[in-house]
Amino acid sequence: MFQSTLTKLTYKLVFPLVLGMSLMACQSNKQNQHGAAHKSSMPSTQQDTLSYTKKVLKKISPYFSERDGAVDTTYIEISYPVFENPQMDTVIKSAILLEGESSIDQYADNFIEGYGNFIEENEVRYNLPWVKFTDVVVVFNSPQLMTLSNTTYEFSGGAHGNTFELIQVVDLENYRKLALNSFVAEDKMKEFTKIAEKFFRAEEGLTDTSSLEKDYFFEQGKFALSANYGILKEGLLLHYNQYEIKPYAAGTTSVIIPFDAFEALMTQTGKNYIKQLKAYYQ
After folding, report:
1. For a Cys-Cys bond, which of 61, 148, 184, 202 suits 74, CB 3.0-4.6 Å?
2. Contact 183, 270 (CB under 8 A)
3. Angle formed by the axes of helices 86-96 and 104-121, nearest 10°
4. In which order are the strands placed within the sheet that holds 253-257?
5. Rounded-to-integer distance, Cα 179 and Cα 189, Å
6. Average pLDDT over residues 89-112
7. Superfamily of domain 2-177
């Protein structure tokens, strides 16, 4: 009865072999290959100095949809760097497993199973297949610091899919994620916000007195720092995702604040990091 219902709704249950289908590929990333693999909206930066492979995992739903002679199905694709150091791989996994999943396989399975549950529990005549892409890349690295970006696009019905990008800064000596206050002193954060706003306004083509209430989602029209930040060779990056401060159609916003612009506001730890970074790229 269950299978015939799916057939009537033009959904076909394929052989169990497809249920476990996963495609994996590895490629060398000793040189920067972000142009092809990185779907991030962040500014491009220098070549990688680390050696790693890029792994791609793809899983396909066993429920195929057929309409007007065209066959399609739900799938998920995850690409991420794999290092020889197991501690670094733990950092990479933490950048992907944001909802308590035990493994990247489970992360993929949850999406595929979610679509299957939707099909089983709802009588829909023409259902659009779902799709999810997760791409984790090394945006920047020096001997002391690494900036990682997880760009994920997901469509699971509705008017359009959604994309978000999560950025992490990692200390490579102890594999610890660094919060913004590792670089900017907590008691200097208000002053840093004012400096960041100047660069934001310049990036957006706004004057010092232009209102932020009409075209932005800042609370009470007051500029606020993004929780999404990264360290690049050029400076500190603030990244705002879709819907965060603008309508969906306006896309994302990225602002780079040169280190020299807020050096006086840095913690001693932050100064040490940036001093090492500058020395490395001289």
Report:
1. 61
2. yes
3. 20
4. 229-231, 236-240, 253-257
5. 13
6. 96
7. Fervidobacterium nodosum Rt17-B1 like (3.30.565.40)
